[in-house]
């Protein structure tokens, strides 16, 4: 399937998305838990999609809002009634855990001397929740880039350029970017990288095989 879009023989560097690629997310549960906080007085119900999201989310992912201000702004925009603890529990309900096979695959790829980095659109609350569980994955990578710490988010070209500049990965087909959102993959390809849209999580095994790892 992937051979038609990825030249695996050329790949020596990998840039991984986190959520949806290495880490499992539950979007229906997230929307259900967040909507449970609504008072019913808002103009629009809570919504979120992998290809689009409220502008407020993007601001938070760029680090433009501290967590305290983000909670309050979200309460106002969607007429939510919740304590900070209730809000944080619902906000983090999207987070499930590291996919069981990912650590072993990245260990094999590191042993084969692939350069690797993580590039994630992520906010402070989510990173705080998952960082301990994900640390073994992060330790296998040369660098990790989290949008709220950089001031940019995918698909903005600035965040890709930052990764390339700080890792030294080539801006060429030797670098493969893997993401579960097509607009982010398109942005990477436009910059001269190879890109793979991992539309389904169970396609990861075929990707691993293409890179020379067993799953």
Task: Summarize the structure in words.
The chain is elongated and about 55 Å long. The protein folds into two domains: 2-24 and 98-210, 3-Layer(aba) Sandwich (Rossmann fold); 27-95, Orthogonal Bundle (DNA polymerase, domain 1). The protein has helices spanning 27-35, 55-61, 67-78, 84-91, 102-111, 124-139, 147-150, 157-167, 182-190, 204-210, and strands at 13-16, 23-25, 95-98, 115-120, 143-146, 175-179, 194-197. By secondary structure, the chain is an alpha/beta fold. Strands 5-4-1-6-7 form a five-stranded parallel beta sheet, with helices on both faces.
Key terms:
215 residues; alpha/beta; Rossmann fold; DNA polymerase, domain 1; 2 domains; two-stranded antiparallel sheet; 10 helices; 7 strands; elongated
């Amino acid at each position: 399937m992937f051979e038609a879009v990825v030249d695996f023989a050329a790949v020596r560097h990998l840039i991984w998305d986190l959520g949806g690629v290495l880490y499992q997310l539950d979007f229906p549960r997230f929307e259900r838990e967040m909507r449970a906080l609504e008072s019913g007085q808002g103009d629009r119900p809570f919504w979120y999609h992998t290809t689009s999201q409220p502008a407020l989310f993007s601001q938070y992912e760029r680090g433009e809002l501290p967590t305290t201000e983000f909670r309050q702004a979200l309460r106002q925009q969607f007429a939510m009634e919740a304590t900070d603890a209730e809000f944080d529990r619902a906000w983090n309900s999207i987070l499930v855990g590291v996919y069981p096979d990912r650590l072993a695959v990245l260990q094999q790829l590191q042993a084969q001397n692939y350069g690797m980095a993580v590039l994630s659109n992520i906010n402070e609350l989510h990173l705080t929740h998952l960082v301990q569980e994900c640390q073994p994955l992060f330790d296998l990578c040369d660098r990790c880039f989290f949008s709220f710490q950089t001031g940019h988010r995918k698909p903005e070209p600035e965040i890709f350029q930052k990764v390339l500049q700080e890792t030294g990965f080539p801006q060429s087909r030797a670098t493969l970017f893997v993401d579960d959102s097509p607009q982010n993959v398109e942005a990477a390809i436009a910059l001269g990288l190879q890109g793979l849209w991992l539309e389904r999580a169970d396609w990861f095994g075929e990707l691993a095989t293409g890179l020379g790892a067993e799953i």
